[in-house]
Amino acid sequence: MNVRNIVCIGAGYVGGPTMAVIADRCPDVRVTVVDVNEAKIAAWNSEALPVFEPGLPEVVQRARGRNLFFAPLTPQVLAEADMIFVCVNTPTKAYGEGAGMAADLQYWEKSARTILAHARPGTIVVEKSTVPVRTAEAISRILNQSNRDEVFPVLSNPEFLAEGTAVQDLVAPERVLIGSSNSSVGEAAARELGAIYEYWVAPEHVLYTSVWSSELAKLTANAMLAQRVSSINAMSALCEKSGADVTELSRAVGMDGRIGQRFLEAGVGFGGSCFRKDILNLSYIAGQLGLQQVADYWRSVVDINDYQIDRFCKGILENMFNTVAGKRLAVFGFAFKPGTDDVRDAPAIRVCTRLLDEHAELAVTDPQALDNARAALDGLPGTVHYLADPYAAVAGAHALVVCTQWPQFRELDYERIFASMEKPAFVFDGRNCLDHERLYDIGFNVVPIGKAPMRHY
Ligand SMILES: NC(=O)c1ccc[n+]([C@@H]2O[C@H](COP(=O)([O-])OP(=O)(O)OC[C@H]3O[C@@H](n4cnc5c(N)ncnc54)[C@H](O)[C@@H]3O)[C@@H](O)[C@H]2O)c1
C-alpha cells in the first residue's frame, strides 16, 4: 500500500501545524484534519487560525483546499484513510487512580474506538500524542481485539516540535522517531510512515525503534530539557544567597561542550502543556513499576519549578514592603514562552493567582496571548485588566513583573514607562531579559533572578 490519504484526529497545537507541513511537503497526499471541536475546525478554515505560530499562515495558505482539509469527524472521512494520526490531548489525570500524576488517556481511547468502528482494516494508526510507555500496545489490543493479526498496525511517532518554532522544527526536524512492533506488518507500516517523511527529511534523520523505546524517548527528552531548566533555577537560588551571578554562571558552564548553552537560562520556571505533565507521568510510571528512587528523582524537577515560582512571588512581596494590596502591578507577558499564544501551565498563571490572593490589582499585557490569559484567570476574585498596549498596562503601576521574554519588551521606552509609574517603581524580571543597568540608571529598583537586586534605597 502506498499512503495517499492521511487523516489526523485532533486539530490542536500539534495536529494542525504537523499536518499542514506534511500536506505542504507531500502535494500528492491528501491530508484531512478532524476534531470534535467544530469551532476549531471553522477557525482552521478561516484567516484567523486557532493557534499562533510564526510562518504557519503561509504554509496553511499554500496547502489548504489543495491537499489539506480541515473537516468535522465523520465515519466517511475515517473510512477513506490509509493512515490515521492521533494527535489528541493527553492531559494529567484529574480524577481517580493516578490523579495529579498519570496521563489521562480517555481521548486517545475514544479515538481508538472511533477508528475501530469506521476505518478500513489495514489502516495504519500513528500515535502522535505523547503517551505513557506501552500505550501503543494497549491501543493495539483495542484495535485488534481477538484478532492476532495486526489488522490495524499501531506506530509510535512522537512529535518533538517546540511551540514558537513549530514550523521550522517540522520542516527541518533533528530526528523523526518511528516505533513499531517487530512483526512484518509492523515493520511494513513503519516503512510507509518513513516514506511520508522522506519526501523532505533525509533518511539518516529517520530513526526506527521499538514502540516502547519511541514512547519512552519522548518522555525522556522532555524530562531532560525540563531538568536543565530546574538545574539552573536551583543554582539561581544559590547565586542569590552567595552573591554569584547566574548569567555569568550559565555562560561559563555552557561553554563546556559536553554541557552546551541551551536551556540554561534561569527564570521564573518552565511552563507549557508538556513538561510538567510528561515528567509527572514519567514519575508515575516509574513509581508504578516499583522504581521509587527514579520516580522521586524526576518528581524533584517539578518540585524545583514550583519552588522557583514561589520564590519569585515571595520576592515581589518582600521587596514591595510585604504588601501589594491595592497596588497595581503590570504583568509583562502571559504566554508560557515567546512566539506562541499558548498559556497552558504558564508560570504567569500562578504568579497572577498569587498576586491576586494578596489583593493586588493586575494589568496583563501580551502580544499574542491576551484572550487565553483572560480565559485562564477567569473566575478568580480581584481586578485584572487585559491591555494590548504595554504603556497602558504599566501606567500608574507600582511594579512591572516580567513573566515572558517577548523580544519586543526590550525595545520599549523605559524612561516613558518610569515616568508613568508610582514611585518607588520596581521591575521584577522573571526572565532576566531586560537591560538591568539601564533600568537602574533610569530610577527603577530592579530585582532579577539569580543575581543581586539593584535598589536605590
Ligand atoms: N503542544 C506541544 O508543544 C506538543 C509537542 C509535542 C507533543 N505534544 C503532545 O501532542 C498531543 C496533543 O497536544 P496539543 O498541544 O496539540 O493538544 P491540543 O489540546 O492543542 O489539541 C488536541 C485536540 O484534540 C481534540 N480531540 C480530543 N479528543 C478528540 C476526539 N475523540 N476526536 C477528535 N478530536 C479530539 C481536541 O478537541 C483538541 O482540539 C499531546 O499528547 C501532547 O502532549 C504536544
Outline of the structure:
The protein has 17 helices and 14 strands. With 457 residues, the protein is α/β, with parallel strands linked by helices.
The CATH homologous superfamily name of the largest domain equals: NAD(P)-binding Rossmann-like Domain
What portion of the residues fall into strands of 2 or more residues? 5-15%
**Count of alpha/pi helices:** 17
Shape: globular
The helix content is 40-55%
Strand order of the largest sheet: 3-2-1-4-5-6
Number of strands: 14
CATH architecture of the largest domain: 3-Layer(aba) Sandwich
Question: What is the domain total for the residues?
Answer: 2
Mean pLDDT: 96
Question: Radius of gyration over alpha carbons?
Answer: 24 Å
Query: What about the largest sheet?
Result: 6 strands, parallel
Task: Describe, in plain words, how this protein is organized in 3D.
The protein is α/β, with parallel strands linked by helices and 457 residues long. The chain folds into two domains: 5-201, NAD(P)-binding Rossmann-like Domain (Rossmann fold), CATH 3.40.50.720; 211-457, 3-Layer(aba) Sandwich (Rossmann fold), CATH 3.40.50.720. It contains 17 helices and 14 strands. It has a six-stranded parallel sheet, sandwiched between helices. Strands 11-10-9-12-13-14 form a six-stranded parallel sheet, sandwiched between helices. Strand 9, helix 13 (347-357) and strand 10 form a beta-alpha-beta unit. Helix 5 (106-118) runs parallel beside helix 6 (135-144), helix 9 crosses helix 11 (275-288) and helix 12 packs across helix 13 (347-357). The site of nicotinamide-adenine-dinucleotide has 26 residues, from helix 5.
